Amino acid sequence: MIDLQQLSVAHRQGYDLRTVVHDVSLSIEAGECFGLVGPSGCGKSSLLWVLAGLNPHWSGSMQLAGHQAAAGKTFTGDLRREVQMVFQDPYASLHPRHRLRRTLAEPLKLLKVKDIDDRISQGFRHVGLDPAMADRYPHQLSGGQRQRVAIVRALLLEPKVLLLDEPTSALDMSVQAEILNLLNDLKRQDNLTMVLVSHDPDVIDHMCDRAAHMANGRIIR
Amino acid sequence: MPTDNSPLIVANRLNISLDNGTSLVNNLSFSLGRERVALVGESGSGKSLTARSLMGLLSPALHIQARTLTIAGENTLTLSERRWSQLRGNTLAMVMQDPKYALNPTRTIGWQVEEPLKLHHKFSRAERRDKVIDMLDAVGLPHPTQLMDRYPHQLSGGMGQRVMLAIALITDPQFLIADEPTSALDHAMRDQVLALIRRLVEQRNMGLLLISHDLQQVADHCDRVMVMYKGELLDTLPAAELPRATHPYTRTLWSCRPSKATHGQPLPVLDRAALEAHREHD
Questions:
Q1: For B267, which DSSP code?
Q2: For residues A143 and A136, what is the distance between their CA atoms, to the nearest angstrom?
Q3: Which of A43, A61, A114, B253 has the most CB atoms less than 10 A away?
């Protein structure tokens, strides 16, 4: 599902590029939950951002959900909806001044999907939320509910690959358990491929079939 | 001055409510001595509010009522702002959750660690400087003299948390309140900072109230655990008894931590409906 060969990632720094991830080669099967662990600043999030198409400054070869991605270009076509990301801070994907329904409907309108409201209601029920909550603003939810909505947002586009950037590190231990259970259920039901980034080795051990440990921009094991 | 055995903080039927009568903390009774006590619960259970009420730092929009609330023998319900300030300098100290927000970005580390000494004690400039360097050294920060001229943004999260601890402890308080001191840190750092807090508190024979939502973490570092849910104290038990907790809420909080052993199984989650019913029943 995901195949990376000699992938390096750089960030713009003024006129220069600073390479933060060096020569990563990985391959991830369909339906697998793959973990990336490491201390803060080791490049695990940078790698995930490239997989999500949010950073074009990479080199090497990347194959995602059957498409060959080109370095230096933004994702196009089907690839855009087939790879979706859930951020650490759910506010990152929810507009603070739009009701949830409007935020969630936007990509569906663009894709000219017919039954948008039904899909949103169904998505909310899927993650154990009351569909009536779609008419609230993000700040009117608790942290755990907001993270569930961020997961709904990603799943509405029916992705093949779900990228998770520390999805539970801002949450309570008890809410974390609920979200991890939810992700496991979704993986089983929809045969999703997931890449999970976390600095908590316990979360990775619980969730992932295989994991890579990173340090200083390289995979060490 | 309380003797070693008498409690430093006594609260009896503590209530905190909003203007419109909504109760946020309900009939809390506890007493804290020179021991390590953990206050655990989910976010929104009122544990931070309780801690803030002990420091006299509640927002003016909140109303506090109690049969008694004494700190080091003083009735805090009728305390003047001036006396509160003295209490906060000499008896109580607090460490906040996130050093990024709690430290002043425009002042150097040295200035910020020195400030409580200026406000609460009469030392010469040189004495204060020595004390600051000793304190920074005691919290395990390298090169204290260079560090004094640094600004908060130049430090990592773990170092920032150590600086906050230095600020809290420099006036030699008798009681430390730590409000989720490790939630903003990454995993390897958490145990280090907690072990440091524990060591310093033991060395100085202080009391500690540690607020956390991670039961397994506090079990290693505390003597006693108080469990809160929706503003009420549900359960109080010795930390060593946690694996055998009888209350369903405590038991779930204890066992919901993921690990290698739980791979492929659903984690236990809270049955909130049953909890509500249980609460009504009580």
A1: P
A2: 14
A3: B253
What is the DSSP secondary structure assignment for residue B154, as one 8-state letter? G
**Cβ–Cβ of B256/A174 closer than 8 Å?**
yes
Residues 6+ apart with CB under 8 A from B246: none
Distance from CA of B189 to the nearest CA of A (A): 10
A177: nearest CB among B186, B260, B269: B269
Domain identity same for B105 and B161: yes
Mean pLDDT for chain B?
A: 88
| DSSP code of residue A159 | -
Residues in chain A within 8 Å Cβ distance of B270? 174, 178
Q: What is the token pair recorded at B44?
A: 């929104």
> Do B115 and B223 have their domain in common?
no
Chain B residue with the nearest C-alpha to that of A206 = B263
DSSP bridge partners of A57: none
Nearest in space to B220 (alpha carbons), one of B193, B247, B239, B244 = B239
pLDDT per residue as tens digits for the range B53-92: 999 888 888 889 999 999 988 898 888 889 999 898 889 9
Q: What is the CATH number of the domain that holds B53?
A: 3.40.50.300
Closest residue on chain A to B260 (Cα): A205
Same domain, B73 and B180: yes
CB atoms A207 and B266 under 8 Å? no
Same domain, yes or no: B141 and B216: no
**Judging by beta carbons within 10 Å of its beta carbon (0-12, 13-18, 19+), is residue A218 exposed, middle or buried?**
middle
8-state DSSP, B268? P
Same domain, B108 and B149: yes
- Residue B67's domain spans which residues? 1-91+176-196+204-282
Q: Which residue of B47, B156, B186 to mutate against A (max A Cβ within 10 Å)?
A: B186
CB nearest to B257's CB, from A173, A175, A184 = A173
CATH superfamily, domain at A2-219: P-loop containing nucleotide triphosphate hydrolases (3.40.50.300)
| B51 and B181 within one domain | yes
pLDDT digits 0-9 by tens, B192-247 = 889 999 999 999 999 999 998 888 788 889 999 999 988 889 889 999 888 888 88
Q: How many domains does chain B have?
A: 2
Structure tokens at B15: 């209530």
